[in-house]
């Protein structure tokens, strides 16, 4: 009986470890619903987000990573709902080994913005502190040898301007968006380093 209980405990622990590893080798699981639930709880609309640098699910070019120029990718944004007061952007690594890793946080982007050029800081917007500990964009930079990680760029249409200090964290931004997100759109790209 003791051996049976030990096997059950070991199997449960193994399943927990496997379920908790985002970038361990197999296809990435869909981002956790709780990862963006705080900010998207009231979102009813969808935004279109595309890039001329990579397609949905495609490989992010080296230029936009830590191995290249490390500049943000060019973006094209669909029209936001009429009552949108600002846009916010979050780029995160969904496969980071210790949970979500924030690469770029931007808020108070003009709601009429339809394009951002590569490396562009949106005029009048504020940027937060990424998980590299720097303010601004920090491109994909997964550990060498990992399978390609999935990087999810989420654009939020917000019904107000966000009042946060420059350098705020992802958690700060998501709290500020909670209950004020009216539409959301995503673009996911992949990047790996050998």
Please tell me about this protein's structure.
With about 190 residues, this protein is α+β, with helices and mostly antiparallel strands. Helix content is about 20%, strand content about 25%. It is built from 3 helices and 9 strands. The chain has a 6-stranded mixed sheet, covered by helices on one side. A hairpin with a 7-residue loop joins strand 4 and strand 5 (about 100-110). Helix 2 (about 35-40) packs across helix 3 (about 170-175).
Task: Please specify the SSE layout and strand pairing.
Elements: H1 2-20, H2 33-40, E1 45-46, E2 49-50, E3 75-77, E4 86-93, E5 101-109, E6 115-116, E7 126-127, E8 149-158, H3 170-177, E9 181-191
Parallel strand pairs: 1-9
Antiparallel strand pairs: 2-3, 3-6, 4-5, 4-8, 5-7, 8-9
Helix pairs in contact: 2-3
Strand adjacency order, main sheet: 1-9-8-4-5-7
What does the main sheet amount to?
6 strands, mixed
E-strand count: 9
What string gives the helices and strands in order? HHEEEEEEEEHE
């Amino acid at each position: 009986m003791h051996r049976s209980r030990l096997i059950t405990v070991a199997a449960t622990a193994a399943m927990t470890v496997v379920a908790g590893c985002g970038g361990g080798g197999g296809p990435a699981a869909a981002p956790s619903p709780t990862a963006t639930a705080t900010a998207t709880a009231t979102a009813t609309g969808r935004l279109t987000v595309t890039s001329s640098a990579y397609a949905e699910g495609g490989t992010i070019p080296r230029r936009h990573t830590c191995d290249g120029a490390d500049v943000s990718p060019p973006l094209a944004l669909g029209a936001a709902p009429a009552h949108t007061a600002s846009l916010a952007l979050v780029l995160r690594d969904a496969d980071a080994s210790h949970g979500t890793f924030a690469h770029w946080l931007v808020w108070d982007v003009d709601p009429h913005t339809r394009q951002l050029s590569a490396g562009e800081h949106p005029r009048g917007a504020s940027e937060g502190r990424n998980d590299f500990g720097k303010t601004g964009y920090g491109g994909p930079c997964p550990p060498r040898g990992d399978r390609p990680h999935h990087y999810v760029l989420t654009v939020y249409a917000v019904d107000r301007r966000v009042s946060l200090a420059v350098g705020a964290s992802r958690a700060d931004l998501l709290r500020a968006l909670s209950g004020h997100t009216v539409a959301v759109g995503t673009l996911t790209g992949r990047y790996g380093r050998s």
